[in-house]
Amino acid sequence: MNRTLFLFFIAVAMSWNTAFAEKHFSESPPDAKAYIISPKDGEVVGKTFTVRFGLANMGVAPAGIKLPNTGHHHLLIDLKNLPDMEKPLAFSENVRHFGGGQTETEITLAPGKHTLRLLLGNYLHIPHKPPVLSEKITVTVKDK
Question: Which element (helix H / strand E) includes 15?
């Protein structure tokens, strides 16, 4: 009996999670594009540098604001694998959120090679369908 009840609750929780995610996805226009304005791919930068975000064919809106064809930026730093595109993006040192609608940031990284990528999230930090994801760039941080 307890096992049956446990399995029932697991099934309900899984279906609720799927229903929640499906209900809160935001469509993106087919020509939407996120990109990093600066630094450029292959650029050598100091430990602290500015990253400028670009977005075409969509608008920027703060997290929590539900408007069509809008979202806010997330900067992916040194991620080997993309995050789950069906769930809200987790906050971490490697996934930085700009829920205020920011279009640039200053970051400090250790010397060495690093990868940067932008991913647009909707009002709930869930990536759009299809994802609005920039090309990955590589920068080399020099100890300046």
Answer: helix 2-23
